[in-house]
Sequence to fold (245 residues):
Amino acid sequence: MSSEPALPQHIAIIMDGNGRWAKKRFLPRTVGHVKGAAGVRRIVKACADRDIRYLTLFAFSTENWRRPPEEVSTLMDLFVQYLQKEMADMSSEGVRLRVIGDRSAFPQDLQARIAAAEQATAHNTTLHLTVAANYGGQWDILQAMQKVLVANPNLKPDELTESMLSPHLSMAYAPEPDLFIRTGGEQRVSNFLLWQLAYTELYFTDTLWPDFDVSHLQDAFAWYAQRERRFGRTSAQLTDQTNTM
Ligand code: FPP
Fold:
């Protein structure tokens, strides 16, 4: 058996704390987001280098439209810039990009760039990078439910099963996250991947997202390696299973 500590296959991150990072330095919140976008590149590379297969980042929630218009616009601009500047490099590292969420509310230019980046990286397999933008976990479950009902208009309530719903969820192409990380000190899931986080290990750190570097990622991996993932079973059952393998 390998003595390497278990690495998560799929990591989902809420990148929180950009605003506070800027405020601590008497800078506008938007500067925090610029710094945060640079952090995205760092963490994507670190994950690709470590053979992590799936990385999912919460960039913009359905609730973030409530922020001041200039902040919303900075976040959109950063996303465009990111797609423009970084995608070629990331693609050469084998990163495949997908965006989940209701993108119809985004400016046309951003929608077109997202589609182009998804298409240009569709053949890559090293790291599946998913950016959740105008995404909400409740929205995701609802849209999946609507698709099931459209496909089965006469469905009776007791005929509806999890396996009918899950193929219509936005991340049907990925295994469920093993490790969830939220930076910035808050301990909540904030309408991120509600369905998919059912058995995910939840890691919270006070580090603000712009300060979150590869050493912090390593800390999260070390914490994850100590977790016992029981998926509803008992510890004794897991030990028995290992011994009979
Ligand atoms: C939360 O910090 C962060 C966001 C709402 C946006 C995250 C966006 C980025 C990291 C940059 C763009 C992303 C990509 C993929 C290029 P906050 O503003 O809520 O911070 P606060 O809690 O300190 O106010």
In short: The mean pLDDT is 92. The two ends are 11 Å apart (CA to CA).
